[in-house]
Specification:
Order of helices and strands: HHHHH
Distance between the termini: 67 Å
Radius of gyration: 36 Å
Number of domains: 3
Structural class: mainly alpha
Shape: rod-shaped
Number of helices: 5
Strand content: under 5%
Length: 140
């Protein structure tokens, strides 16, 4: 048993095309190597090394992402999406209220410069909402 396989395995290999007819150990070792034969856990697939390397790269990437998450140096997409939805909803409310209800009444009979000031106030209000929400979000 110098090939370190069971007799039944050897009998199965003898039926394979190109199997050696002799009991020469060197010829059998070459045959086993050329045909990627071996004990099941030790069987070598043609792409095994490449697949193991890809697996290692992916595992390392996952570990890097987990570390970054624990260090809070990355943010989950869902958290960013929730923040942006909240900010957009709040700004939309202010924008519609200002442009549809307040601005027409305030702008009636005013000059273009005065209307521009009113518009700037609305823009400042929107920027304030955004910056306040970002600061709150950073602290949570």
């Amino acid at each position: 048993m110098q090939l370190k396989v069971a007799r039944r395995v050897l009998f199965t290999w003898r039926r394979l095309p190109g199997a050696p007819e002799t009991a020469d150990l060197g010829i059998w070792k070459n045959f086993v190597e050329e045909n990627s034969l071996g004990i099941a856990p030790n069987r070598v697939a043609p792409r095994r090394a490449e697949l193991m390397e890809e697996n290692l790269v992916k595992r390392n990437r996952l570990l890097d992402l987990e570390i970054a998450k624990q260090e809070r140096s990355v943010i989950e997409r869902a958290a960013v999406d929730a923040l942006l939805l909240r900010v957009a909803s709040m700004q939309k409310t202010i924008l519609y209220q200002s442009l549809e209800r307040e601005m027409p009444a305030k702008a009636a009979g005013r000059s273009a410069e005065e209307i521009a000031v009113l518009g700037r106030e609305t823009a400042d209000n929107l920027c304030e909402i955004f910056s306040r929400e970002i600061e709150q979000w950073k602290q949570s």
